[in-house]
Design a protein that fits this description.
The chain has one domain (6-263). The chain is 77% helix and 0% strand. It has helices at 6-24, 36-53, 56-67, 77-95, 99-109, 114-123, 129-178, 187-238, 243-251, 262-268.
């Protein structure tokens, strides 16, 4: 079962909570802030524009990614430390010159990450380090660019939402002015309803879409950082560098408080 990012949930609750607090402290008519037609115009218009602007499959992926922002990043200090430990373990095997034992360890690791699977497959294929590094670099950058398309789509939808809020406001104003002669007393309520779509558009953009885009961008940057660390380790393995050399190189990617220490690890066993 996936965990939930408490800080993200807290951020959403705080944002909507402040909005609700402003309402309840200033009026007793809470229902006037609910408008199904305004909601549909903002959400539907934003989705329609996204479908026109981008491939439908990417838009669907963008919405899935938007919902996944409540799931914490699975790459953290602990996971990076474990990656370093795994690479150092593999380096010890290769120091003995036994590629078959390394292949066995890779199979036992049951790797799920697509980059790690690709990287380990070509590691045991016999490429030189000069061939290995550009292939892994291309794999990292192309994955990053593909994933950043999703971030760009979410951010673009964040720009669309306020615009459709304004369109809804203009529609409401036109309807209000058309009915002005029949019932002048309805100007106030009509204006409030007309402005509702602008409110929804700004909220949807500033509290959901744009923060969601930034969260997905952060996730992809962390993933890219981790992939480059793994690449450096695999290239050193391919050069049959010692475990100490691999440790010292990969520790440069880690927080100083989380540096791997082969001697300490051996003492703990």
């Amino acid at each position: 079962m996936k965990q939930i990012s408490l800080t993200t949930i807290l951020g959403f609750i705080s944002g909507f909570g402040l909005f609700m607090l402003a309402i309840v402290t200033n009026t007793d008519n809470y229902l006037m802030f609910l408008s199904f037609s305004s909601f549909i115009m903002v959400i539907g218009g934003t989705l329609a524009s996204a479908m026109v602007s981008f491939s439908g499959s990417y838009v669907i992926r963008a919405f899935k990614e938007l919902f996944s922002v409540i799931v914490p990043q699975n790459i953290n200090t602990t996971s990076l430390y474990h990656d370093v430990a795994l690479l150092i373990q593999w380096s010890k095997v290769l120091q003995r010159g036994d590629i078959r034992d390394l292949e066995k360890l890779i199979d036992e690791a049951k790797i799920e990450d697509s980059f790690m699977k690709y990287a380990t497959n070509i590691l045991v294929s016999g490429y030189s380090s000069d061939e290995l590094r550009p292939m892994l670099t291309d794999a990292i950058e192309t994955r990053y660019e593909r994933n950043m398309v999703i971030t760009y789509i979410i951010k673009t939808m964040g720009n669309y939402a306020p615009a459709f809020g304004m369109i809804g406001t203009l529609v409401g104003l036109i309807i209000m002015l058309d009915n002005l002669g029949a019932n002048p007393d309805s100007i106030g309520s009509g204006m409030a309803l007309a402005l509702m779509t602008t409110l929804y558009g700004v909220l949807f953009s500033q509290l959901i879409l744009k923060p969601g885009a930034e969260k997905t961008r952060e996730k992809q940057q962390i993933l890219r950082y981790r992939d480059f660390m793994v690449m450096e380790g695999l290239v050193m393995l391919n050069d049959r560098k010692s475990a100490i050399a691999v440790q010292d190189r990969l520790n440069s990617f880690l927080d100083p408080k989380s540096h791997f220490d082969i001697i300490s690890e051996n003492d703990n066993k």
